[in-house]
Amino acid sequence: MDENEILEIEKSCNVRVNNESLKALAKKEEPRFLSILLKDQECLMDAISFGIKDGEEGHLWLPKPRFLFSIIHEYYKKYGKLLTRTAMESVMDSLSSIGRVKIDDDERTTARMYFDEVFGLEAPVSDYELLRDHINGRYLQWQGFEIMKSEMEGLVKATNGQAEKIKHIQNRFLHIDNLEADSYCLTLGMVDAMPKVREHITERREHPEDDPRIPTYISALDKTYYLTPCTYTVVSGMINGGKTTLMFNMAMNMARAGHNVCFVSIEKEALPLFIRLTALHALVDYNRIKAGGKGDYGLSDVYYQKLIEATKDIEDNIKPNFDCIQLVPGTKLSKIIAEVEKVKSRKKIDVLFVDYLGVIGYETHHQGRPDLDEAMVSKRLQAYGKINRFVTVVASQLKTPSAKEIRNKSKKATADDPSQVEVNTEDLAGSKMIIADADNGLSAILNSDSPPTKMFVYGTKARDDESRSCVVLDFDGRIGRVSDPEFDSGQITEVDSLLYDDQITEEDLSSDDGLFSSPTEESKAIDGLNEDDFCFAEEKPKEPKEIEKPKSVEIKNNKKEKSKKKPDDDQVPEELTDDDIFGL
Amino acid sequence: MQIITADDTLVEYQKKMSHNRKVRAQAKAVLQRAKEAGIPEKYMRINKESFIPLVDNYYHNDVNKLVNSIYDDPLKLLKKEFIVIDGGDVQQRKSAGFAVLFRLIACDQRGMHWENSKLAHQLQSLKVFGTGEASGRNDITEICRNVGILFISECSQGDFRPNFETGRFYDEILSYRDDYRKPTIISFTNPLPSGDVALNSENAMIDLERFGQYIGIISKSHKKTDDERFFTIRVKENGRK
After folding, report:
1. Residue to test with chain A: of B18, B24, B73, most A Cβ within 10 A
2. Domain with B139 in it
3. Distance from the CA of A498 to the CA of which of A36, A225, A307, A356 falls in 20 to 30 A?
4. Per-residue pLDDT tens digits for A99-123
5. Are A116 and A108 in contact (CB under 8 A)?
6. In what order do the strands lie in the sheet with A391-397?
7. Which CATH number belongs to the domain containing residue B200 in this structure?
8. pTM for the predicted model, two decimal places
């Protein structure tokens, strides 16, 4: 029995890929890699945390390095130290067999000699990462080759069930070990860290514009929350409480600023989401698109044009930055990750939104504890985001009893005194581990106006001492827009002018029609002449209205009558086209 | 409102549209809040021009100044602890009270109106009224303490029955509101005397056990001049010039 026979546990494993140059490279690199692991503990720790595996199904190609690495690995796991020459002797002396092969003194001597040979190699530590990546690359190549070898014939001969076969192969490829190496794992000593800290501080001082965080572009939020890569943010709220709207606005703002956003929607379909996005961008009531037609409640020419303009703007300026993945509720996280991976394979992702945690299918089963299953989902998602350096934002529900209490409190809150609004970590539904592990926790609560005009965003969890503060944002539910507050709390002169104008009814305020201009003196003079509001200011005739605008009067009267009726496009007379109204 | 023109670019349009929508949404929210506060439709949106004829021009030297301070500088009014209305008849007092309540709600506040007779009755009763949010007198007290603007209308001596605890509940409400600088509008059915005359006037509600300390202070602190805590409005009888 020669030395190779002793150390080869399964001969077949040695023939991984029929590629002699690859084998030659392995012969050269593996001993050098081991030489570093015998001398440098940090590299050994990194190799283990990186996922370099021992054994016949492990990373190393050749039997002798594989054997030595097994001993190094086992010894480190047991004693937490580097394998020394004397330790190697003791280990060898204590072994009576390796696998099914009994070993004698000669073989022990051979192993010791191999240790000396490897230890004596000149291998600088600086080569470590290169060698590690090459070894990992060959390991991946072998796994991929094995899958193709075993599946190729079945695929070629398949006469039915091809989709299942492809899915099976795809699934096997997704489970290739160490394909996504744990780049997040790092051990950093204080001595090594300090120069980096100095560099970072200087860099921040010199170039404050190179901010690593990805702002939400809602400045009130950005003051409190630092959404940097690798952070995990939980947006909580009541049912129909604006969680998705807030996330959607954040996503849209980020995409508009050039960051790559991937929005996973497990509740809503992708196309309606994009329609909403367009409505949001064009600031057109989403219900108009739903209602359809060209009538007062549908898409008049001006709204239609703005929507089309918005789609083109999105297409030209934002499109490459926003991807939406639609999935059915109950979809497991592995599937979600696989879909995100597809997007990632095409381009870099900066921000990942998942709407929402509660509807992701569980892959674990804790008897009677679905909250733990949900926590596991959250943990995996957080880890995935960290490894890939995403800003990850997920939504979560509030507990029903808490939601009721918070709703009552929010009724008393006003923009200048939002102190009544308070959402604590224990108010979130599911396991508290979700918010405990998260970097940021935002809670979105709408005010009690009908429809809501403000969104209170409470800092359930935030960096340093910024939590437990409440930010007040403007909210427009009809277009699904969340934005920075435009007016200071208190007197708003423009609001007063609407409130104390007898000509403007509450119904007028609810309708979008008057948005295109302020009521002019001329329009006020004509009793109830609200259709004037439709006219663009530049095109509004200055001449006496009773002579110049008979059509407008007619339109107004028509509109007043119509407004009391149920919206029905069929009732819109011919003369009510926007060409007439806008003079376009 | 910002005027949107046909030549506006998408960005300009977005900016103006967003602004206009916010203004209108806020106006609508104010109307909604006014309804929730219990302002009847006929007393809603009383403007400056309609308010001027309500004010007693014999009592107030400069009616326009008074009205301007309500309509043009409501934030100053928000800092007053008590807005006292008296004189005139019930319609006039209600109009003035609701107009002020609406004016303050329009400053992004929330408000509530109580008829004094009803409030006093509920506070002096141990009964539980329904199962809603304000089912007992302690709940009512809590709500009245915390609401942004409270309007207690038609306060009269007859509403406070002797030997009941109403005055104490009023004190609890008004003391809290006074401490936390929450404006309270109170209208009195009888014209209030001013200065030292108060002690001897039959209209002053100075029986502290019956009316509570705060009603006592308010009813005898009627001042024409600007006061840090009080703002007084005397309305005139309907039809008087």
Report:
1. B24
2. 38-235
3. A307
4. 666 777 887 888 889 999 999 998 9
5. no
6. A322-326, A261-265, A351-355, A391-397, A232-237, A440-446, A454-461, A470-476, A481-483
7. 3.40.50.300
8. 0.70
Answer yes or no: is B114 within a domain: yes
Minimum CA–CA partner of A420 in chain B: B146
Structure ipTM over 0.90, yes or no: no
Secondary structure (3-state) at A347: coil
Determine the longest span between alpha carbons in chain B, in angstroms: 73
Q: Tokens at residue A149, please?
A: 């070898």
pLDDT computed for residue B139 by the predictor: 84
Q: Which of A576 and A73 is assigned the larger pLDDT?
A: A73
* Sequential DSSP letters for A28-82: HHHHHHHHHHHH-HHHHHHHHHHT---STTSS--SHHHHHHHHHHHHHHHHHSSP
Is the pLDDT assigned to residue A31 strictly greater than 70?
Answer: yes
Q: Which residue has the higher pLDDT, B142 or A523?
A: B142
| CB-based contact, A503 to chain B, within 8 Å | no
Tell if the CB–CB gap between B31 and A509 is shorter than 8 Å: yes
Give the total number of structural domains in chain B: 1
B10 part of a folded domain: no
Put simply, whether A90 touches B (Cβ < 8 Å) is: no
Q: Is residue B150 part of a domain?
A: yes
> What pLDDT, on the 0 to 100 scale, is given for residue B103?
92
Q: Do A412 and B146 touch (CB under 8 A)?
A: yes
In this predicted structure, the answer to whether residue A299 has a pLDDT above a threshold of 60 is: yes
Asked if A283 and B31 come within 8 Å (Cβ–Cβ), the reply is: no
**Model confidence over B148-170: pLDDT tens digits?**
899 999 988 888 877 777 888 88
Residue B163 placed within a domain: yes
